[in-house]
Design goal:
nine-stranded mixed beta sheet; two-stranded antiparallel sheet
């Protein structure tokens, strides 16, 4: 590589990643039908030539011609502009969970991320996934589970979509475990738009020390095949996968299937038998998935069976909220309640309610979200 190219790749290569090797891998991904094409080639080479590890990576990512080097230099420039770092499978910063069993496991050859450092290698992690068209019940349960396990120190992983994914990410932001988003597009593609805009969910994830990760190169749009393929990364990074809501054709079922293939426990949240969003979790329950009816079920799978603060084990005996407000929120649990509806049900003025909610939010009793207010602990 020329001096300029070498500097660009050195800027985006993670610690322990050889810049020239990273450039070769990016060239292979760009010219071989994308990440899935390289994955297929890797599996074929491993089977035919009985190769593995570094030798296999070098075979599927050979030295690049000058023309290809110039073509992929734009990847390094874009990654640098977005503050991205990247690593190749087997490198120190590449998540070990995705290295195990590669390439047969179908894991990515290269992973890029935005965040304060490489994605964590140690500690518990949970994937909470489900429908984009989530109900208030589903969003509330996802937030309840996410907040509880993240408070207990587990990393919450999801796909950054609207609905269940967004509820899970947002609830984990300020907790010790934090959250990680697996994108189904390139890091420079604004998708979903409301999450990628300035001050949106993705900025909040980064501001709170979380991560945005992707195997996809800059400019890659969120085509269905790529969005579905990222589910294998969600499952591969997790110690357990929980499906909260989803239709009969939900992508969450794909995440669950990937988890099952990897030996990762799958849990499902029971729902209303008449609701379309219950189709995916109820199918999984019928196939042997463990029911997840509270954070305790999930903490037990993680080996954290002891009650953690805020895991829903108890409700404080005293509250800063007026009794009628607590009662109204308890009746709707875990669904969030819009402020105007809550004021009407509790029989108090909107001004008095907002003042009480501010005090309760500071005390950690309630969470305020775009779709309403809910108690942080089960009643």
């Amino acid at each position: 590589m020329t001096g300029a190219d070498a500097r660009r790749w050195a800027e985006v290569a993670a610690e322990g990643t050889e810049p020239a090797r990273l450039a070769r891998v990016v060239g292979a991904v760009a010219g071989s039908g994308g990440p899935l094409g390289v994955a297929r080639r890797s599996i074929e080479r491993a089977a035919e030539e009985r190769l593995g590890g570094t030798e296999l990576v070098d075979r599927v990512a050979p030295h690049l011609s000058r023309t290809v080097r110039e073509a992929v230099a734009s990847v390094a420039r874009t990654w640098a502009r977005w503050g991205v770092r990247a690593a190749v499978v087997g490198d120190p910063a590449f998540p070990g969970r995705l290295t195990a069993g590669w390439p047969e496991s179908g894991g990515p050859l290269v992973l890029a991320w935005r965040g304060s450092g490489p994605p964590p290698q140690d500690g518990s992690s949970v994937a909470i996934v489900g429908a984009r068209r989530a109900t208030p019940y589903g969003s509330g349960v996802a937030a309840w589970l996410s907040e509880s396990v993240a408070r207990a120190g587990a990393l919450v992983i999801s796909g950054g979509a609207v609905g269940i994914d967004a509820a899970a990410h947002a609830a984990a932001l300020e907790q010790p475990g934090g959250t990680l988003v697996v994108l189904g597009c390139g890091p420079d593609v604004a998708y979903p738009r409301q999450h990628a805009r300035d001050g949106g969910l993705f900025d909040r994830v980064l501001d709170h020390g979380g991560w945005l990760v992707s195997e996809l190169l800059p400019g890659t749009e969120p085509r269905p095949a790529m969005v579905v393929a990222r589910n294998r990364i969600v499952a591969g990074l997790s110690d357990a996968v929980v499906v909260v809501e989803g239709s009969a054709r939900s992508g969450a079922l794909r995440t669950a299937a990937c988890a099952a293939d990897l030996g990762v426990p799958v849990l499902a949240v029971p729902g209303d038998v008449r609701a379309p969003g219950s189709a995916a979790p109820h199918r999984l329950l019928g196939e042997g998935a463990a029911p997840c009816a509270s954070p305790h079920d999930l903490l037990a799978v993680l080996g954290r069976a002891a009650a953690q603060p805020g895991d829903g084990a108890s409700t404080p005996t005293t509250s800063t909220l007026p009794g009628p407000v607590v009662a109204a929120l308890a009746r709707r649990w875990p669904r969030p309640v819009p402020a105007d509806v809550l004021a009407e049900e509790a029989g108090i003025s909107t001004g008095a309610l907002l003042a009480a909610l501010t005090r309760a939010q500071v005390a950690g009793e309630v969470v305020r979200a775009p779709d309403g207010i809910r108690l942080t602990r089960a009643p």
